[in-house]
Amino acid sequence: MKISESNWFEIEEYLKTDDRCVLPLGSTEQHAYLSLSVDSILSEKVAADAAAPLGVPVFPAVAYGLTPYFMGFPGSVSLKLSTYAALLRDILDSLYATGFRRVLIVNGHGGNSPVQPVTMEWMEANEGARCRFHDWWRAPETWNCVQEIDPVASHASWMENFPWTRLPGRELPDEQKPFVPFDKLRDRNAAGVRELIGDGNYGGVYQKLDADTDRLWEIAVRETRGQLEGDWA
C-alpha cells in the first residue's frame, strides 16, 4: 500500500503486526528522450507493485539524488553527498521513531550507491533495525533478463523505456546507439560528459517491444518482492 493512499490510523494499525516498509530512491536527471523523473518513477512503481500483495507500506520516492555528472543537462538536479546522507539518515530515523524496523530501500539510480554506509550506521545505532539496499535494475535475475533481451542496454536506452517513463508525442531515434566510452566518463566534468554522450543515452536502442519490457518488469517486481519476503533474521 502506498503511504500517499493511507492515513496515519491505518499505518498505526499495520504496525501492530508488521514493521516492514519500503523506501524508494530516485533522481531527477536527464534520460535522453524519456522523462527527467525516470529513476523516481521506476523505483516507486517497482516497489509498489512488489509490495502490493503483501500489504507493506511504500513511501514516496526520494526524487533527488546524486548526479553531478549530468548537471550539463537542464532539468537535472543534484544534491551534495553530505546533504543526501543527512536526508537519508533523517528519513530512516523518522521511520524507526514511528515503529518501523525493517526497511527495504529500492534504489533506482546508480549514482546513489555512495550513500549505502548511512544504512549501516543506522543499523548500528538502532536496536533491531534492519535495512536492505536493493538496486532493482541490476538484481541478478533482472539483469540476466536484460542481457537475454539485448546486452547493449544502459542509461536512457530501451531498458528504462516503459509506458510509464516515455513521454507522449516524442519521437525516438530508430537506431542502436553504440556504448559511450565509459572509461572516459570518469575524468570529465559535467560539460565534458555532455559532449561525450550527446543526447544522454549511454548505449542501446531507444525502445523495444512492450512484450520484452513487460517480461523484464515482471521479473524485476518478483525479485524485489523476494527482498521483502526474504529471511530478515
Automatic annotation (TrEMBL):
TM ranges: none
InterPro entries in the record: Creatininase-like_sf, Creatininase/forma_Hydrolase
Pfam families attached to this UniProt entry: Creatininase (PF02633)
Cofactor: Zn(2+)
Keywords tagged on the record: Hydrolase, Metal-binding, Zinc
GO molecular function terms noted in the UniProt entry: hydrolase activity, acting on carbon-nitrogen (but not peptide) bonds, in linear amides; metal ion binding
GO annotation, biological process: riboflavin biosynthetic process
Coiled coil regions in record: none
Family affiliation: Belongs to the creatininase superfamily.
PANTHER family in the record: 2-AMINO-5-FORMYLAMINO-6-RIBOSYLAMINOPYRIMIDIN-4(3H)-ONE 5'-MONOPHOSPHATE DEFORMYLASE (PTHR35005:SF1), 3-DEHYDRO-SCYLLO-INOSOSE HYDROLASE (PTHR35005)
Protein name: Creatinine amidohydrolase
Species of provenance: Sulfitobacter delicatus
Taxon lineage: Bacteria, Pseudomonadati, Pseudomonadota, Alphaproteobacteria, Rhodobacterales
